[in-house]
From TrEMBL:
Residues 123-261 form the ISXO2-like transposase domain. Transmembrane segments: none annotated. It comes from Fraserbacteria sp. (strain RBG_16_55_9). This is ISXO2-like transposase domain-containing protein. SMART domains: DDE_Tnp_IS1595.
Amino acid sequence: MDLEAYEKLVHSEAAARRFLLGFCWENHQRFCPRCSQRRLYRLADGRRRCARCRYTFHDFSGRWINHGALSGQQWLRLLKLFELEVSTRKMAGQLRLAYDTVYKAVTTLRLAILAHAQDGPALLGGEVEMDETYFGGRRKGKRGRGAAGKVPVFGILERDGRVSVEVVPNVRAQTVLGMAVKKVRRGSIVYTDRFQIYDALMFCGYRHLQVDHRARFARGRVYINGLEGFWSYAKERLMKHHGISPVRFPLYLKELELRYNHRHADLFTLLAEYLCDLVPNLG
Ligand SMILES: [Zn+2]
């Protein structure tokens, strides 16, 4: 979205809400966020009540955007700053909101990104790279596999395509292969290094090619530089958020996955769409 279009949106609360409501209700067709019923009663205060389950709701009820007490204009400004990777503290200053308010809103946005990612995107395929790495840990030394106090992460990268990264409980063959078969189309060509956990890939329906890191040069297309590039991008970016707790780490990881996968897209509009998603398991 260009700057002029953005400025029109945040110029008035009515314009901001209209834009956001467009992501909530396709063609203005309201339905019950709990049971999807389309027969609704309109209440005097503007809210609606479901004819089936009696749930009473307003336009943003049950959606991520409803968490955080920000106006439509404030949300859109926050999305713009988030797109530009402005820190939470600077956002608070620019939006003239309390740090805690902005921190909660940004966390809500990251939760929306995480939920959307778990919606099950299309399978990766073609030529893919798989690799595992560790994030965090204060001390240097003890690097690489088996490093204590670090978060193991498994990644799959489609050459010239998308990346999928996930925090894993461990980097054993069973864990890693279980994720591989869920995310990568059978028949794909999979590149890995020579770590033995990948040995069984050929039995999972993949053509498996290994890179030898000891070799001075990668042979032809047998390299995993794409994913290694993503790891260094992610690690550099997460340096900015030093001291991320292990509980919140997956949120930051999914944000980076999103930024990478939509590096050519309009992130602002995409974030607005995610923010207007219904929160899963609404009870
Ligand atoms: Zn209902």
